[in-house]
Amino acid sequence: MKKLFIEIGLIARFTGRFFTELFKPRFEFNEFLRQCFYIGNKSLPLVAITAFIMGLVITIQSRPTLVEFGAEAWLPKMVSVSLVREIAPVITALICAGKIGSGIGAELGSMKVTEQIDAMDVSGTNPYKFLVVTRVMGTTLMIPLLAVLADTVSLYGGYLGANIRGVVSWDLYWNQVFDTLVYGDVMPSIIKTFFFGFAIGIIGCYKGFNSNKGTEGVGQSANSAVVISSLLVFIIDLIAVQITDIFNLN
Amino acid sequence: MKDQKEHIATTDPETVISIRNLYKSFGDNKVLNGFDFDLKKGENVVVLGKSGSGKSVLIKCIIGLIQPDQGSINVLGDNVPDLNTTQLDEMRVKVGFLFQSNALYDSMTVRENLEFPLRRHWIHTSKEEVNELVMEVLRNVGLPHTVDMMPSELSGGMRKRIALARTLILKPEIILYDEPTTGLDPITGKEISNLMVDMQKKYNISSIIISHDLNCVKITANRVVMLIDGTCYATGTYEELERSTDSKVKQFFE
Fold it and tell me: Is residue A207 over pLDDT 70?
């Protein structure tokens, strides 16, 4: 228990340092753009494919229940709300926790054990700014964009799913989707993805930056980065749902 | 603090590094226990000691990567523990560091690795100048053809040479070598040792070399310092220490 609280304290201190370093020059703009490209572009196909399949599967799975209640016509409405509010953002965050979080943890971990971080320090570079701030900013800004993409692609998957057993015209499907979705559905789900992205970036960097015990430590860093950031995604999601519910934002 | 200032003020101008009363502990483990040391201009000093005796900690204290518990480290007129980040960066242009693991950036090509310290220290911003310097240091270490290769495509000896080239590119006055021949076969180790001596002569560099490879010590050392029990236990030329009758010194040369 004591170890857990120490770990939480260290993560809090690491996060505090992020905000201190964020506003201090020199700004590593080129590295930030490189990270945005890496995080956004390289994760795009995986997020798109997964979101499409999720949209398709959720629609196929939901159809029999709605048919039972004679509410098949509500299928696009129900599917679009659940995809946009919950499934697409969370699935995107979990994929990114696995792909990006572990990547950051392993990359920084191996840089730590091979003294590349020290080499950066003696080369006149603040390694925290160059490695941590750029990556955390990259995940914080790119994961919401990936979530928007996932929302869109999953709705296309939903359209295909609705037409596998039944017949829903293109116009009818999209009319129902856009009639149903309001800003109260879209905005809270996008806002929470900024927090997902921040959590994934900061945990990956924290674990990598504090890696030790050689190559074994690198593996542990990557693994625990995924586990902790995935758990944090669900905790943030729970808090976000409570907030939107309390303030009646939906 | 007064002692430290007096120490800095009285340092001989030919002395580029002067360390007095250096202490560093990790928990109960006293690694440096009142270490004293001087490095003269143009001198190659090898620090010899057992694994875990604090040799790497010593040079990391000199470059400012580790903060000592007590003592002064005067490098080219500045007391390192008192320097702020900007002053440390300025000092690190004049003091190069060759890491034991080479520490080449895996995600960058050889060219990008060599350009990195130049760009970060805001030196030679024109593209032509940077390219000229990169090719010059690569020619000096005998590897101009590797310029667009990735570190993963190079052998251990080649990586060591590239790491040395990256250290040399800033034309430092002092280089700190952390076990430069570790992990290399004896022939490559000898090549690297000879290269270090050549570079010292060419650029008039003063060096501290951490090593327990006696071949490397023999080739590179003008003077050897024995780091035992956290102190400067013995000092002298390789031949003098080799002939020593002290049991602690003798065991290194047997």
Answer: yes
Q: pLDDT tens for residues A73-123?
A: 888 899 999 999 999 999 999 999 999 999 999 999 999 998 999 999 888
How wide is the angle at C-alpha B149 spanned by C-alphas B144 and B153, nearest 5°?
115
Interface test with B, best of A42, A107, A115 (most B CBs within 10 A): A115
**Residue B132's Cα: distance from chain center in Å?**
25
Q: Cβ separation of A119 and B97 shorter than 8 Å?
A: yes
Q: Name which of A115, A123, A126 is nearest B116 (Cβ-Cβ).
A: A123
Q: How many CB atoms lie within 10 A of CB A43?
A: 22
Residue with tokens 């995809």: A83
* pLDDT computed for residue A250 by the predictor: 64
As a dihedral over the C-alpha atoms of residue B31, residue B36, residue B38, residue B39, rounded to 10 degrees, the angle is -10
List all residues 6 or more positions away from A159 whose beta carbon is below 8 Å from its beta carbon: A55, A76, A168, A170, A173, A174
Please list every residue in chain B whose beta carbon sits closer than 8 Å to the beta carbon of residue A119. 97, 99, 103, 105
Residue of A nearest to B95 (CA): A122
CB A38 within 8 Å of CB A25: no
Q: State the average pLDDT over residues B44-62.
A: 90
Domains of chain B from N-terminus onward: 2-103+173-253 (3.40.50.300)
Look at residue B13 in the predicted model and tell me its pLDDT.
Answer: 62
Reported ipTM? 0.84
